[in-house]
Amino acid sequence: MKTILFEDLGETAYDAAWDYQERLLKANLDLKSEWYSAQGNNAPYNVATQHHLLFCTHPHVYTLGKSGHMENLLVNDNRLKELNVAFYKTNRGGDITYHGPGQVVGYPILDLEYFATDLGKYMRNLEEVIIRTVAHYGIEAGRLQGSTGVWLDPEVKGRARKICAMGVRCSRWVTMHGFALNVNTDLKYFDYIVPCGITDKSVTSIAKELGYAVDEAEVKNLLVEHFEAVFEAEIIQEVVKA
Question: Which residues span the domain enclosing 83?
Fold first, then answer.
């Protein structure tokens, strides 16, 4: 069974989490490069890459994907300072989204050559983890055709709302970036952007759907449980690095 090292980084600045992901990604890419140089492309794949799953919560921040549009940020720099919200252009897919307190952000760094070299399947698996997690709270979620992420009432006109945004980067089949599940998130921060570049749909959270705040530690435990099941892997707690 595949082994995934898990770290809960707690509240972490967006740039620090990004740098950490890049280091883990590079370590895996270096191993793959060395192996392919020595073995060639025809040898059975056997690279000692390490899979990681990082959880964290970011201070208020807007992030824009490499295919995103700046006009979907609806406020200027001065207003961002007033709101105490940072802004980053990133190398993930997708458009603009918000991260902040009350949200669980997950960053899987996986070598998909040990899972399936199919990015579409990878995204559907991430969505399945979220769908199973929110189902624990009696929330029926699903997918919206043509869009990534996890939605409620995706096929109901005027009712579709996103509970989890997703955007990833994949280099030589090693992933980074991931998902952002709105748990107890203050949704007013989405009012200052066009979330994911979609103008006719809204966002929601577990707390908004239930009418009360939920235990974020419980949500994290459920995410780990379902990640293990969907990705058919064993997740091992790792001591957070200084």
Answer: 2-237
